[in-house]
Amino acid sequence: MSTAAGATLGIDFGTSNSAAAWRVGDGPARPLQLEGEHFALPTALFFNAEDRRVHFGRDAVAQYLTGADGRLMRSLKSLLGSALLLEKTEVNGQAISFQDIIGIFLKEIVARARQQTGAAPARVVLGRPVHFVDDDPARDALAQQMLLQAAHAAGLANVSFQLEPIAAAFDYEQRITRDSVVLVADIGGGTSDFTVVRLGPARARPGADRTQDVLATRGVHVGGTDFDQKLSLEHAMPLLGFRHIGPGQREVPSAVFFDLATWHLIHWRYVPRALREAQALRVNYTDLNLHRRLMTVLDQRLGHHLANDVEQAKIATSQTGGAAVLDLGYIERGLRSGFDAGAMAQYLQALLARVVQCAQECVQAAGLQPSDLTAIYLTGGSSALMPFQRALQAAFGDTPLVEGDLFGGVAAGLVYGAAG
Ligand SMILES: Nc1ncnc2c1ncn2[C@@H]1O[C@H](COP(=O)(O)OP(=O)(O)OP(=O)(O)O)[C@@H](O)[C@H]1O
Ligand SMILES: [Mg+2]
């Protein structure tokens, strides 16, 4: 395949969704359709044990949910910077590391991108969060290194990195008509990232050095998957025995519930040793029905199904302002749970406070007051979460919130930022 001179491929490898964009020279960014007509590709792989093929994105999730035999992987980005990334796991009879699995995913993005562009890029820009790992610069650098290695394994060359919120800012800049000072909030699945940046049509010249325009960046490792975890621990895991008081007034050990509520740890609970451990928890239960449910979830590998239901309930509650029901009949006939908007806001309050505090610190680090901001630009799937928007508005008073592209902005901004 030929290389397109002056062409840049931007890849936003996200915790929950990935996207890609293409740009030739100073032309417009072209978002690439990575799955059918969809631009975003859910960051999900399913290793199907029946046809021994790897499935990606919505197709991966659908295969898993229809009960095909195999392994589902989600939220792999959360493993970057941790020792778990290099651990081997067995899929379709082969032992491979999670880093290899990220490489397989990136390779698929590149293949799908090339089907549309017809040529290889001259260079690649990968997005990265402000912090892969909070408060640990060495592990953070390691995380980027691990992602770079996976990109090389996927056949990518000439790779550079750009901070995700700065990319989101460059995308927003394409749509504004006057000079602005903007707080960009990219609230994703794994991280919430902020930047305060000077934007304007005249500043967006190809090749311009924008270093002086970026006034501050901050990020915190809290995102939609943490909201899902919290809601699962409050509304789903108690049905399996979380916080259940067993014989001797002792609580059932909780590690299994935390893992089952955490997207990137679910599959560890299906390995034989973990299953034996869970089986042995039986003596810690007074109500054995709860233990039976736990074993059903583990034996039938329903963990992602449950996490998916909690996530969908979160989104529905946010969108309607009402209540969402979790129909858990696939675990036990007639089993249900759910929550309303008030309960969700209450349970997410502490996590949202950390996100909003990070936004405030970013503005302070830029030496500005909220009233100095022209707007707050919202991007990333979790920026649509109503309790988040309310908490942010409460902290920033009258500064207008501008709702942007939830899933494609970072990829487009990666190629705009690289122009020149
Ligand atoms: N309408 C919605 N309301 C609230 N949350 C939503 C909505 N739509 C999607 N989400 C959440 O957004 C998150 C995914 O957002 P996004 O695709 O921007 O993340 P990502 O780019 O994959 O993650 P990151 O940038 O942190 O690596 C998920 O946690 C999902 O549950
Ligand atoms: Mg993102």
- Helicity range of the residues? 25-40%
Largest sheet: 6 strands, mixed
What is bound: which ligands? adenosine-5'-triphosphate, magnesium ion
Strand residue percentage: 15-25%
Output the CATH class name of the largest domain: Alpha Beta
Rg from alpha-carbon coordinates: 22 Å
How would you describe the shape?
Answer: globular
Tell me the domain tally.
2
Distance separating the two termini: 24 Å
| Series of secondary-structure elements, N-terminal to C-terminal | EEEEEEHEEEHEHEHEEEHHHHHEEHEHEH
Structural class: alpha+beta
The average pLDDT is: 95
How many H/I helical runs?
12
CATH homologous superfamily identity of the largest domain? ATPase, nucleotide binding domain
Number of strands: 18
Q: Remind me, CATH topology of the largest domain?
A: Nucleotidyltransferase, domain 5
Uncertain segments are none
Instruction: Tell me what the CATH architecture of the largest domain is.
Output: 2-Layer Sandwich
Provide a descriptive summary of the structure in words.
The chain is α+β, with helices and mostly antiparallel strands and 420 residues long. It has 2 domains: 3-178 and 405-417, 2-Layer Sandwich (Nucleotidyltransferase, domain 5), CATH 3.30.420.40; 225-345, no CATH class. Helix content is 38%, strand content 23%. The strands form 5 sheets. Strands 1, 2, 3, 4, 10 and 11 form a 6-stranded mixed β-sheet that branches. It has a 5-stranded mixed β-sheet with strand order 14-13-12-17-18, with helices on both faces. β1 (3-12) and β2 (17-24) form a beta hairpin. α4 (164-173) packs across α12 (409-417) and α10 crosses α11 (386-396). It starts with a strand and ends with a helix. The model has no long low-confidence stretch (mean pLDDT 95). Bound molecules: adenosine-5'-triphosphate and magnesium ion. Magnesium ion (MG) binds next to loops.
